[in-house]
Amino acid sequence: MTTRSLAPKAAAAFGILLLAGAAQAQNYFVPGSYVSETGLGNDWDPPTAPQMVETAPESNIFDLDFTLTGVTEGQGFAFKILNTPDNTAPAWGQPEITPQDVPFDADADFDMTIRLDRNTYTDGYFPTTNRVAILDDYTTWTAIGNFQTQLGSASDFNNSFLGTAMTETTPGVYALTTAIPTAGSYAWRAVKTGTFNGVGTDGRSGNAANMTFNTFEDNQEVTFEMNTNIGAIRFLTEAVLAGDTNNNGLVEFDDFTPIRDNFLTSTSLRANGDLTGNGFVDIADFREWKNAFSGPPEMIQMALAQLQSVPEPSSLALIGLATAFLGGSRRRAG
After folding, report:
1. What CA–CA distances, in Å, run from 251 to 149, 243, 248, 256?
2. 83-87, 174-178, 228-232, 305-309 — which is least confidently predicted?
3. How far apart (Å, rounded) are the C-alpha atoms in residues 329 and 36?
4. Of these four, 10, 75, 238, 285, which has the most CB atoms within 10 Å of its CB?
5. Whole-prediction pTM
6. Which strands, in side-by-side order, build the sheet including 173-180?
7. Percentage of the chain surpassing pLDDT 90?
8. CB 229 within 8 A of CB 114
9. What residues have CB less than 8 Å from 22, skipping those under 6 apart?
10. 91: phi > 0 → left, psi -120 to 50 → alpha, else beta; which?
11. How does strand 76-79 pair with strand 82-83?
Protein backbone atom coordinates (compact mmCIF):
# COMPACT_ATOMS: atom_id res chain seq x y z
CA MET A 1 0.00 0.00 0.00
CA THR A 2 1.33 3.45 -0.86
CA THR A 3 -0.80 5.71 1.30
CA ARG A 4 0.34 4.26 4.62
CA SER A 5 3.82 5.66 3.99
CA LEU A 6 2.34 9.11 4.68
CA ALA A 7 1.46 8.23 8.27
CA PRO A 8 1.99 9.43 10.92
CA LYS A 9 3.42 12.55 9.23
CA ALA A 10 0.18 13.38 7.42
CA ALA A 11 -0.74 16.15 9.86
CA ALA A 12 2.42 18.08 8.98
CA ALA A 13 1.80 17.62 5.28
CA PHE A 14 -1.87 18.52 5.20
CA GLY A 15 -2.47 21.21 7.78
CA ILE A 16 -1.27 23.18 10.74
CA LEU A 17 -1.88 21.61 14.12
CA LEU A 18 -3.35 24.19 16.47
CA LEU A 19 -4.54 22.50 19.61
CA ALA A 20 -4.20 19.08 21.10
CA GLY A 21 -7.33 17.66 22.67
CA ALA A 22 -8.01 18.18 26.34
CA ALA A 23 -6.62 15.66 28.79
CA GLN A 24 -8.93 12.68 28.86
CA ALA A 25 -8.99 8.91 28.70
CA GLN A 26 -7.04 7.88 25.63
CA ASN A 27 -8.56 4.44 25.22
CA TYR A 28 -10.20 3.98 21.85
CA PHE A 29 -11.76 0.66 20.87
CA VAL A 30 -13.15 -0.14 17.41
CA PRO A 31 -16.05 -2.61 17.32
CA GLY A 32 -17.47 -3.37 13.89
CA SER A 33 -18.49 -5.90 11.27
CA TYR A 34 -14.88 -6.52 10.23
CA VAL A 35 -13.48 -7.84 13.53
CA SER A 36 -14.13 -11.56 13.02
CA GLU A 37 -12.26 -11.36 9.69
CA THR A 38 -9.16 -10.13 11.54
CA GLY A 39 -9.05 -12.87 14.16
CA LEU A 40 -8.94 -10.19 16.87
CA GLY A 41 -12.43 -10.70 18.30
CA ASN A 42 -16.13 -10.89 17.47
CA ASP A 43 -18.17 -8.59 15.24
CA TRP A 44 -19.84 -5.62 16.94
CA ASP A 45 -18.70 -6.87 20.33
CA PRO A 46 -17.04 -4.08 22.36
CA PRO A 47 -15.39 -6.37 24.97
CA THR A 48 -13.41 -8.13 22.20
CA ALA A 49 -12.94 -5.09 19.96
CA PRO A 50 -9.35 -4.16 19.04
CA GLN A 51 -7.80 -1.08 20.64
CA MET A 52 -6.16 1.80 18.79
CA VAL A 53 -2.54 2.75 19.54
CA GLU A 54 -1.19 6.31 19.73
CA THR A 55 1.27 6.86 16.88
CA ALA A 56 3.64 8.92 19.05
CA PRO A 57 3.52 10.13 22.66
CA GLU A 58 1.07 13.02 23.07
CA SER A 59 0.42 13.13 19.31
CA ASN A 60 -3.32 12.66 19.90
CA ILE A 61 -3.37 10.54 16.74
CA PHE A 62 -4.33 6.89 17.07
CA ASP A 63 -4.04 4.03 14.59
CA LEU A 64 -5.47 0.56 14.30
CA ASP A 65 -3.62 -1.70 11.85
CA PHE A 66 -5.15 -5.03 10.89
CA THR A 67 -5.28 -7.61 8.11
CA LEU A 68 -8.55 -8.96 6.74
CA THR A 69 -8.64 -12.66 5.84
CA GLY A 70 -11.15 -14.69 3.86
CA VAL A 71 -12.68 -11.61 2.20
CA THR A 72 -12.72 -10.16 -1.31
CA GLU A 73 -11.40 -6.83 -2.54
CA GLY A 74 -14.12 -4.19 -2.28
CA GLN A 75 -16.13 -6.09 0.33
CA GLY A 76 -17.84 -3.62 2.61
CA PHE A 77 -17.59 -3.32 6.39
CA ALA A 78 -18.38 -0.76 9.08
CA PHE A 79 -17.23 0.24 12.56
CA LYS A 80 -17.61 2.70 15.42
CA ILE A 81 -14.99 4.14 17.78
CA LEU A 82 -15.68 4.05 21.50
CA ASN A 83 -13.94 6.36 23.99
CA THR A 84 -13.56 4.04 26.95
CA PRO A 85 -12.63 5.42 30.41
CA ASP A 86 -9.50 4.16 32.13
CA ASN A 87 -9.78 0.86 34.00
CA THR A 88 -13.07 0.13 32.25
CA ALA A 89 -13.96 -2.59 29.76
CA PRO A 90 -15.28 -1.28 26.42
CA ALA A 91 -19.07 -1.45 26.23
CA TRP A 92 -21.99 0.08 24.37
CA GLY A 93 -23.20 3.23 26.09
CA GLN A 94 -19.72 4.68 26.40
CA PRO A 95 -19.02 7.94 24.49
CA GLU A 96 -18.82 7.36 20.75
CA ILE A 97 -16.34 9.34 18.67
CA THR A 98 -18.34 8.20 15.62
CA PRO A 99 -22.09 8.42 16.38
CA GLN A 100 -22.88 6.91 12.95
CA ASP A 101 -21.41 3.69 11.56
CA VAL A 102 -18.28 4.39 9.51
CA PRO A 103 -18.24 2.35 6.27
CA PHE A 104 -15.12 1.09 4.48
CA ASP A 105 -14.09 -1.45 1.85
CA ALA A 106 -11.35 -4.08 1.87
CA ASP A 107 -8.45 -2.94 -0.29
CA ALA A 108 -6.34 -5.01 -2.69
CA ASP A 109 -3.83 -6.38 -0.17
CA PHE A 110 -6.29 -6.53 2.76
CA ASP A 111 -3.88 -4.66 5.05
CA MET A 112 -5.90 -1.80 6.53
CA THR A 113 -5.37 1.19 8.81
CA ILE A 114 -8.05 3.14 10.67
CA ARG A 115 -6.81 6.46 11.99
CA LEU A 116 -8.37 8.78 14.58
CA ASP A 117 -6.99 12.31 14.90
CA ARG A 118 -8.25 14.06 18.04
CA ASN A 119 -6.43 17.35 17.37
CA THR A 120 -8.16 20.52 16.24
CA TYR A 121 -7.14 22.26 13.00
CA THR A 122 -7.87 25.42 11.01
CA ASP A 123 -6.44 24.20 7.71
CA GLY A 124 -9.68 24.69 5.77
CA TYR A 125 -10.69 21.02 5.95
CA PHE A 126 -13.81 19.73 7.69
CA PRO A 127 -14.36 18.22 10.15
CA THR A 128 -11.90 20.31 12.12
CA THR A 129 -11.45 17.71 14.89
CA ASN A 130 -12.05 13.99 15.54
CA ARG A 131 -11.02 13.17 11.99
CA VAL A 132 -11.42 9.51 11.06
CA ALA A 133 -9.54 8.16 8.06
CA ILE A 134 -9.39 4.69 6.53
CA LEU A 135 -6.23 4.46 4.49
CA ASP A 136 -6.28 2.85 1.05
CA ASP A 137 -9.90 1.76 0.74
CA TYR A 138 -11.97 3.92 -1.64
CA THR A 139 -10.22 4.98 -4.83
CA THR A 140 -13.17 6.39 -6.81
CA TRP A 141 -14.82 9.53 -5.45
CA THR A 142 -17.59 11.78 -6.72
CA ALA A 143 -18.54 15.28 -5.62
CA ILE A 144 -22.31 15.38 -5.16
CA GLY A 145 -24.53 18.38 -4.49
CA ASN A 146 -27.40 20.59 -5.59
CA PHE A 147 -25.36 22.04 -8.47
CA GLN A 148 -25.01 18.84 -10.53
CA THR A 149 -28.02 19.37 -12.79
CA GLN A 150 -26.42 22.61 -13.95
CA LEU A 151 -23.46 20.52 -15.13
CA GLY A 152 -25.60 18.06 -17.09
CA SER A 153 -26.64 15.49 -14.48
CA ALA A 154 -30.16 14.09 -14.62
CA SER A 155 -30.52 14.88 -10.90
CA ASP A 156 -28.75 16.58 -8.04
CA PHE A 157 -26.85 14.55 -5.44
CA ASN A 158 -26.14 11.99 -8.17
CA ASN A 159 -23.45 9.63 -6.89
CA SER A 160 -22.73 8.15 -10.34
CA PHE A 161 -22.47 11.33 -12.45
CA LEU A 162 -19.23 11.23 -14.43
CA GLY A 163 -19.26 15.01 -14.79
CA THR A 164 -18.40 15.44 -11.11
CA ALA A 165 -16.02 12.49 -10.72
CA MET A 166 -12.96 13.46 -8.67
CA THR A 167 -9.38 12.84 -9.79
CA GLU A 168 -6.46 11.82 -7.58
CA THR A 169 -4.07 14.80 -7.60
CA THR A 170 -1.57 13.55 -5.02
CA PRO A 171 -1.56 10.22 -3.15
CA GLY A 172 -4.85 9.99 -1.27
CA VAL A 173 -6.12 13.43 -2.32
CA TYR A 174 -8.98 13.68 -4.82
CA ALA A 175 -10.23 16.91 -6.40
CA LEU A 176 -12.67 18.31 -8.93
CA THR A 177 -12.34 21.77 -10.43
CA THR A 178 -15.36 23.03 -12.33
CA ALA A 179 -17.44 26.14 -13.01
CA ILE A 180 -20.90 26.58 -11.48
CA PRO A 181 -23.08 28.19 -14.20
CA THR A 182 -25.35 30.22 -11.88
CA ALA A 183 -24.33 32.21 -8.82
CA GLY A 184 -26.08 31.04 -5.66
CA SER A 185 -26.00 29.04 -2.45
CA TYR A 186 -25.08 25.37 -2.73
CA ALA A 187 -24.15 22.28 -0.75
CA TRP A 188 -21.82 19.36 -1.45
CA ARG A 189 -19.99 16.37 0.00
CA ALA A 190 -17.67 13.64 -1.31
CA VAL A 191 -18.91 10.05 -1.71
CA LYS A 192 -17.58 6.77 -2.97
CA THR A 193 -18.78 6.64 -6.56
CA GLY A 194 -22.08 4.78 -6.83
CA THR A 195 -22.84 4.96 -3.10
CA PHE A 196 -23.60 7.55 -0.45
CA ASN A 197 -20.74 6.37 1.76
CA GLY A 198 -18.50 9.37 2.07
CA VAL A 199 -17.20 12.35 3.98
CA GLY A 200 -18.91 15.60 4.97
CA THR A 201 -18.44 18.30 7.56
CA ASP A 202 -19.23 15.84 10.36
CA GLY A 203 -16.80 13.19 9.14
CA ARG A 204 -17.21 9.86 7.39
CA SER A 205 -20.49 7.92 7.32
CA GLY A 206 -23.18 6.62 5.02
CA ASN A 207 -25.09 9.91 5.36
CA ALA A 208 -22.51 12.61 6.03
CA ALA A 209 -23.46 16.26 6.48
CA ASN A 210 -23.19 18.54 3.45
CA MET A 211 -20.77 21.47 3.26
CA THR A 212 -22.52 24.69 2.21
CA PHE A 213 -20.89 27.29 -0.01
CA ASN A 214 -21.74 30.34 -2.13
CA THR A 215 -20.69 31.43 -5.58
CA PHE A 216 -20.82 35.14 -6.32
CA GLU A 217 -20.89 35.26 -10.10
CA ASP A 218 -22.09 33.08 -12.95
CA ASN A 219 -19.56 30.48 -14.15
CA GLN A 220 -17.38 30.95 -11.08
CA GLU A 221 -14.63 28.34 -10.87
CA VAL A 222 -14.59 26.20 -7.73
CA THR A 223 -12.59 23.24 -6.47
CA PHE A 224 -13.93 20.39 -4.34
CA GLU A 225 -11.28 18.38 -2.49
CA MET A 226 -11.39 15.11 -0.56
CA ASN A 227 -8.31 14.12 1.47
CA THR A 228 -8.49 10.43 2.35
CA ASN A 229 -5.26 10.66 4.37
CA ILE A 230 -7.03 12.73 7.02
CA GLY A 231 -10.69 11.92 6.31
CA ALA A 232 -11.79 15.48 5.54
CA ILE A 233 -13.09 17.70 2.73
CA ARG A 234 -12.71 21.34 1.75
CA PHE A 235 -14.01 23.82 -0.81
CA LEU A 236 -11.76 26.27 -2.64
CA THR A 237 -12.51 29.20 -4.92
CA GLU A 238 -10.78 32.26 -6.22
CA ALA A 239 -10.09 35.04 -3.75
CA VAL A 240 -12.83 37.66 -3.47
CA LEU A 241 -11.91 41.35 -3.19
CA ALA A 242 -13.40 43.12 -0.17
CA GLY A 243 -16.22 45.44 -1.24
CA ASP A 244 -16.49 43.94 -4.73
CA THR A 245 -20.09 42.78 -5.11
CA ASN A 246 -19.89 42.02 -8.84
CA ASN A 247 -16.55 40.21 -8.52
CA ASN A 248 -14.88 42.04 -11.40
CA GLY A 249 -11.71 42.71 -9.43
CA LEU A 250 -12.49 46.41 -8.82
CA VAL A 251 -14.33 48.27 -6.08
CA GLU A 252 -16.51 50.83 -7.84
CA PHE A 253 -19.65 52.82 -7.12
CA ASP A 254 -21.56 50.13 -9.03
CA ASP A 255 -20.68 47.70 -6.23
CA PHE A 256 -22.74 49.86 -3.87
CA THR A 257 -25.92 49.49 -5.99
CA PRO A 258 -26.98 46.00 -4.75
CA ILE A 259 -26.31 47.07 -1.16
CA ARG A 260 -28.68 50.00 -1.62
CA ASP A 261 -31.28 47.99 -3.52
CA ASN A 262 -31.35 45.18 -0.96
CA PHE A 263 -30.59 47.12 2.21
CA LEU A 264 -32.19 45.61 5.34
CA THR A 265 -33.33 42.51 3.46
CA SER A 266 -32.30 38.86 3.66
CA THR A 267 -30.05 37.36 1.00
CA SER A 268 -27.07 35.05 0.98
CA LEU A 269 -25.64 36.30 -2.31
CA ARG A 270 -22.66 38.60 -2.51
CA ALA A 271 -24.00 39.83 -5.84
CA ASN A 272 -27.09 41.06 -3.96
CA GLY A 273 -25.04 43.02 -1.43
CA ASP A 274 -24.28 40.49 1.32
CA LEU A 275 -20.53 41.11 1.50
CA THR A 276 -20.10 39.79 5.03
CA GLY A 277 -21.89 36.49 4.40
CA ASN A 278 -24.28 36.81 7.35
CA GLY A 279 -27.39 36.33 5.19
CA PHE A 280 -28.56 39.94 5.56
CA VAL A 281 -27.67 43.23 3.86
CA ASP A 282 -26.94 45.74 6.59
CA ILE A 283 -24.59 48.46 7.73
CA ALA A 284 -21.67 46.03 7.92
CA ASP A 285 -21.90 45.45 4.17
CA PHE A 286 -21.99 49.19 3.50
CA ARG A 287 -18.99 49.67 5.76
CA GLU A 288 -16.98 47.01 3.90
CA TRP A 289 -17.74 48.67 0.56
CA LYS A 290 -17.01 52.16 1.92
CA ASN A 291 -13.63 51.14 3.37
CA ALA A 292 -12.57 49.52 0.09
CA PHE A 293 -13.86 52.28 -2.21
CA SER A 294 -11.13 54.66 -3.40
CA GLY A 295 -13.42 57.23 -5.02
CA PRO A 296 -13.96 60.79 -3.77
CA PRO A 297 -15.70 61.40 -0.40
CA GLU A 298 -18.56 63.10 -2.23
CA MET A 299 -19.55 59.73 -3.75
CA ILE A 300 -19.57 58.10 -0.32
CA GLN A 301 -21.81 60.95 0.90
CA MET A 302 -24.07 60.30 -2.08
CA ALA A 303 -24.23 56.59 -1.19
CA LEU A 304 -25.01 57.43 2.43
CA ALA A 305 -27.86 59.72 1.35
CA GLN A 306 -29.28 56.99 -0.87
CA LEU A 307 -29.24 54.48 1.98
CA GLN A 308 -31.00 56.97 4.25
CA SER A 309 -33.77 57.22 1.66
CA VAL A 310 -34.51 53.49 1.84
CA PRO A 311 -38.22 53.22 2.83
CA GLU A 312 -38.79 52.99 6.59
CA PRO A 313 -35.28 52.30 7.81
CA SER A 314 -35.02 51.54 11.49
CA SER A 315 -33.54 54.08 13.85
CA LEU A 316 -30.81 51.56 14.65
CA ALA A 317 -29.86 51.37 10.98
CA LEU A 318 -29.68 55.18 10.77
CA ILE A 319 -27.45 55.30 13.82
CA GLY A 320 -25.26 52.66 12.20
CA LEU A 321 -25.09 54.68 8.99
CA ALA A 322 -23.92 57.75 10.83
CA THR A 323 -21.33 55.70 12.69
CA ALA A 324 -20.10 54.13 9.46
CA PHE A 325 -19.72 57.51 7.80
CA LEU A 326 -18.10 59.24 10.75
CA GLY A 327 -15.70 56.33 11.01
CA GLY A 328 -13.89 57.78 8.02
CA SER A 329 -13.14 56.47 4.59
CA ARG A 330 -10.27 54.23 3.75
CA ARG A 331 -7.38 56.26 2.36
CA ARG A 332 -5.58 54.65 -0.50
CA ALA A 333 -3.21 56.00 -3.11
CA GLY A 334 -4.43 55.99 -6.67
Report:
1. 33, 6, 8, 9
2. 305-309
3. 69
4. 285
5. 0.70
6. 167-170, 173-180, 220-227, 232-237
7. 66
8. no
9. none
10. beta
11. unpaired
